[in-house]
Amino acid sequence: MSRTGRSLLLATTALSLFTLAWSGALAWVLWSQADAAQRDALRAALAGRGAFVALFVLLLPVLLVLLLRPWHRAWPLAATRLREAVSIVASSHPEHAITAGGSLEMRELAQATAQLASRYASAQRDVDQRIAQAQGRLAQETRRLAALMSELTQGVLVCNHDGRILLYNAHAAALFEPVDARDASTHGGSIGLGRSVFGVLDKAAIVHALDQASRRGVQPGASPTAQLITTRRPPSGADDAAAPDGQLLRVQMVLVQDDAAGGDSGYVLILEDITRAVESDSRREALLHQLTEGQRAALGSLRAAAETLQRFPALDEPRRARFVQVIDDESARLVRQLDEALARGADPLRSAWPREDMLAPDLLFAVQRSVDAGLGVRVEVAPSPEGLWLQLDSHAMVQALTHLAASLVAELGAQALMLAATDEGRFARLELRWAGAALAAEQLQQWERQSFSLGSQGRHTSVQEVLAQHGAESWVQAAAAGGHHAVCLQLPRARPERLPSAAPVHSRPVYYDFDLFHQRGQSAALDDTPLSALTFTVFDTETTGLSPSGGDEIISIGAVRIVNGRLLEHECFDRLVRPRRPVGEQAFQVHGIGDEMLQDQPALEQVLPGFARFCADTVLVAHNAAFDMRFLELARERTGVACGQPVLDTLLLSEAVHAGRASDEHHLEQIAERLGVAVLGRHTALGDAIVTGEVLLKLLPLLAERGVHTLGQARDASQRTSHARLRY
């Protein structure tokens, strides 16, 4: 029952009780003052008329309702509608028309309020115009800067400290598109504002680079930068054991300093796809090796036969013919091998792993952190020579040394480790020392051949392969009496290379939202999270009919994202789905999607995983969400995809905000009109999702006025509405 209905019921009940009490009191006074004859006469008058008296008592509330209804319409109901209209004007839609019926006083109050609202709307338009002018000037400056940087061929991602993406350019988006074009319809988008960078890049590699950049940032004269080489992370939902798709990325990280907070608020990632360059270098090296080492035997035979013929010109004809045949055979074999080598040179070979320059103390510190975090073993680091630079893939080398340390702890029982680096001229010597049982050279070789993974989604490699890629050597150094044993590595040195300083991002941003620098990552327990801090995925479906339990199916899914209070129409999900049954005639009349439009579309088993990736780590929002969620729930058995995020329903939120409205006033069109939202593309999944998203943004301040600030409060308010009982 609405608030105004409750007020009428309470007023009627109170007046009925008051009337009965007054009548009873009056009857008691008259009875007490009457003599015996009057009382007998009264009894005789009421004899046989008890039913009439009871009927009068029962009809009294009805009569009072009829008497109070005009008053109720003139005052409480009119006041409630006026308060609702003023709330909409103040919070969501300044142009909302204020009208009120009721008494003359209420109409005059509504008229005066409408005049005040008109002045407020005029002032708001003036403020909006000034803001638009300021934003226009800022946008013009941004376009000028972007135009100067638009030719950059590198991808750029700007992330906050939690790895949420604040900015990305078109080149970055292109880097993470599906390698196979056939997967594009089911991909669901890899990067987007507010999404985690760890969904596209290996987290272990990023955290390692972040540690290195932070360490350099506190060193005098050093720039807070780091470089890493990594592979593109497989899409969410793929088999974790599957190898990456082979795309090799060079990533330069630059920390974003926050002087106000006294620390780092995020980082910039500059991305470059070096897959083809590395493969080309590998093929070139393999070809050179084939053309040099592989042809030595043939060239030796040719030279020997030619020298023999030259030194012995008087050889008899049979022997001369044999040497000529050798020259002919070896020449043909040399040509054949050359052709084969050139042909194989076009095939992709195993790529070398590019290296970077880094200081030896940085490497030792990274190994110390990795061993301490992964094994819980105390690691001491000996002082290193000043200016000792190494040339290596730091992430791979750290993981290789961590693997060796784990083997020492597990198989030899080492309780404590020590790391040291020394300058050996052309090379640097790194020692991993321990006290206790000795290590045989054969056992070290066995450890080096064992496979391990470079990060949670990295490629599989071995210590032996890492050392080979660096041209490094390893050996065991036995301890003197009472000393420490050591595994020694000979690593390539590098000249000190000054890393580039933090420079402006040279690219045209697609969309950005730097307020996300201060937004923490979402967790599973979201009920206490403010609605303004959440990321929403607003979605809608079109179906073959209105009966999910009767076999109707989804034929279209549309969704948009709301990040930091902004609806991002450019980050959308819009897919048609081929159903297993024809589209119903009534449904076709609503959305206009016919069977011929769907016959070449992917099935739900292909589309739904992409939608799940698109809405991961967000709160789902829909209008009359029970209908859409029922279809997704039934599809779970068929696809194995579950959307277990919290769900908000704009229909229920509208009823929570405007409880006095009738049920037919909470349709999406009515809510949009009431809140000043333009309805475009109605009855298309994406169009309805966009309208629903704009309605949600209008409802949030109205909810805040009623004390609904967090997700948990919004869900509780929704559950108390009458529409929450709807089931499909």
How would you describe what is shown here?
The structure is a single chain. Helix content is 48%, strand content 18%. The strands form five sheets. The chain has a six-stranded antiparallel β-sheet with strand order 3-4-5-1-2-15, with helices on both faces. A five-stranded mixed β-sheet has the order 7-9-10-14-13. Helix 18 links the parallel strand 19 and strand 20. Helix 11 packs across helix 12. 31% of the residues are buried.
Kindly list the characteristics that best describe this protein.
Beta-Lactamase; 18% strand; 6-stranded antiparallel β-sheet; 728 residues; single chain; 5 domains; alpha+beta; 5-stranded mixed β-sheet
Compile the SSE list and pairings:
Layout: H1 3-33, H2 36-46, H3 50-74, H4 76-91, H5 104-149, E1 155-160, E2 165-169, H6 170-175, H7 203-217, E3 225-231, E4 248-258, E5 263-273, H8 275-292, H9 296-311, H10 317-344, E6 356-359, H11 360-375, E7 378-381, E8 389-392, H12 394-412, E9 416-424, E10 427-434, H13 441-449, E11 451-453, E12 460-462, H14 463-470, E13 473-477, E14 485-492, E15 509-512, E16 536-543, E17 554-563, E18 566-576, H15 585-591, H16 595-598, H17 604-614, E19 619-622, H18 625-639, E20 647-649, H19 650-657, H20 668-675, H21 685-705, H22 711-719
